[in-house]
Amino acid sequence: MSTISTSLNVATKPAVSQTPEAGNQAASAVTAVPTNTGNSSTAAYQVNLRSLRIDSAGQTYDQSGAVSATPVSSAWWENKDTDHFSYLLEKNATSTITTAGRFNGLATGLVERLRISGTEVKQAYIATSVEAGASSKAVAEAGEVSLNDLRDRPDQSLGLKVKLASGHTVALSIKSNANGLSVEASSDTELSETDSKALDKLAAGLEAAAQSYFADQRINLNALSGFDTSVVSSLELNIKAGDRQLDFKIDQSHHQLKLTSPDGVVDIDVSHDNPGLRGDATQRNKAIQQFLGQVDNAAKRGNADEGLVAQYKEAFSAVQKINTNDDDSAAGYLLPAKTPAFWDNSAGSLLTGLADFNAKITGVTTTPNPARLQESDYFNFQTSQKTTQEGHLTSGKISQNLESSLSAAFHLELKSGRKPVLGEDKNSQNYRYIKVDDHESSKLDLGFEKNQLSSARLEKNHDRNLSVSRYEFGKLLDTKNFPDKQTIVTDLTQSAGRDDTASEQALRRQHIIAALSGKIFLDN
After folding, report:
1. What is the pTM of this model?
2. Residues 76 and 28: beta-carbon distance below 8 Å
3. Nearest to 523, CA basis, from 355, 289, 312, 294
4. d(CA 25, CA 159)
5. Confidence bin at 343 (pLDDT 50/70/90)
6. pLDDT of 77-125, one tens digit each?
7. Strands in 79-206 per DSSP E
8. Separation CA 321–CA 286 (nearest Å)
9. Are 458 and 352 in contact (CB under 8 A)?
10. Which residue of 286, 443, 466, 478 is 20 to 30 Å from 455, comparing CA positions?
11. Sign (positive/negative) of CA torsion 332, 334, 338, 339?
12. Residue 511, SS3?
């Protein structure tokens, strides 16, 4: 049996039509669909009448013949409204199967509602379970309990905080769980038409990023990064999907991306303090491949989790490529690419061509050997680039420093590369315990005189150590260490003589470039 009650809020010049219910919806409400009136400050509505429904599984009786209190499903709205956005919220909550589908259209719809309503939007659709014949108060109380649980402990969530160039802030939040959907939006000022257009574009990019992450955990930040910096100065994005989370921040000097999962954490911070020293697209792509090869080698040497390394590689590529349009006039280009006054374009191939960064992988630490709990398995890898410049007018110096460190430990079978199955029984205690401790650096110093490359010095160091302990039936057989330490210096400092001809100076520059082009990268 169903108990049906209807209500109708009439807007300007309504045209009433019956809207069919989609599937076995837990509830519905009066929906007003905005129609285009040609005036953004006023709106006419086509009102679709739908019903608030409490579905019962049928009455049952106890042994005394009285009607038993059978739970029924009911719907509760935080703020009952008749707008199209509320209808979309209900539709996504009740008829959408995939997580990505539940969030479809909500970010863009939320920006639209914020533009119409002013400075705040709060709405939630909650499916509750109450006793048959429960009062509206009981339904509301159950709904509020479920809403608090949804907002405090969502299964999936999407958040965006935007700082406008005017100094004002706008925040959007969408949260989801099995019981429903909750949305919030706020602005500390009413949005101008220019602000609204910029936010519309960001909302579309937000949905694209969320769809990729919810569907297959892919990182799609391109749609978010190309914003108009004359309107938007910074943004912060947070996406949660179960036990995985993506946090992304971008402003005019930094891009920060953090990925958290059961496998570990990937944390990448890219700086744009020296945008004029970035290379073109070809040079950047080659450099990215160099760094990806470096992490592949570290992962192999440190026996890293393949999924975590794959996340790192995708994240590193994504963050290095955003806002790297070679056309400096593009709206999404955060900073003008101004090179130092003393810069010599021929020296570009000596640098990596990438923006400075600090990138980390922190794997989950485990203790797989119950007989020796002091033997932990872990994988920690960090790599960075830092570029500095000094000087003025036609003479100066540029230094670029690359560093990496690897700290890892893991268990392997004695005669294979497989993980051993370790237990407290001595018969299972046949294995190798391997520890890796590596440090590498590469520093390039470039000198410039009269706007020409005049000197270059490259120093590369590595200090690696591999320790292997072998156990048979729980007894230590031996521990062997394999150290590897090396320093290589290439110094091509050549002071120009007073009588040097232009051709002699050009040959000197060509010699430096030929000797050191592409050599700054750490050895893979």
Report:
1. 0.81
2. no
3. 294
4. 27
5. very high
6. 898 777 889 999 999 998 888 888 999 999 999 999 998 888 899 999 9
7. 120-131, 156-164, 169-177, 180-187
8. 12
9. no
10. 286
11. negative
12. helix
For residue 18, the SS3 value is strand
Tokens representing residue 420 in the block: 């051993």
Name the helix (H) or strand (E) containing 378.
Answer: strand 378-392
Lowest mean pLDDT among 12-16, 194-198, 391-395, 514-518: 12-16
Contact status, residue 220 vs residue 205, Cβ threshold 8 Å? no
249 forms bridges with which residues in the sheet? Answer: 236, 256
Q: Is 254 left (phi over 0), alpha (psi -120 to 50) or beta?
A: beta
Do residues 261 and 243 lie in contact, with contact meaning Cβ atoms separated by under 8 Å?
A: yes
357 pairs with which residues across the strands? Answer: 270, 385
For the beta carbon of residue 356, count every other beta carbon within 10 angstroms: 21
Measured between alpha carbons, how far is 212 from 69 in angstroms, rounded to an integer?
44
Six-digit token string for 154: 């969502």
Tokens 């996504």 belong to which residue? 92
Closest CA to 522 of 433, 441, 438: 441
Dihedrals φ, ψ of 334, to 5°? -70, -40
d(CA 188, CA 170): 7
Write the single-letter amino acid at 462. H
Residue 186 has pLDDT above 70, yes or no: yes
pLDDT band at 69 (very low <50, low <70, confident <90, very high): low
Residue 423, SS3? coil
In whole angstroms, give the CA distance from residue 406 to residue 362.
10
Looking up tokens 């939630």 gives 124
In angstroms, the CA 408 to CA 166 distance is 47
φ/ψ of 43, rounded to 5, equals: -145, 140
Measured CA to CA, the distance from residue 217 to residue 381 in angstroms comes to 22
Label residue 239 exposed, middle or buried (CB < 10 Å: 0-12, 13-18, 19+).
buried
Give the pair of three-digit tokens for residue 251.
Answer: 């402003």
Alpha-carbon separation of residue 48 from 31, 108, 112 (angstroms): 5, 22, 19
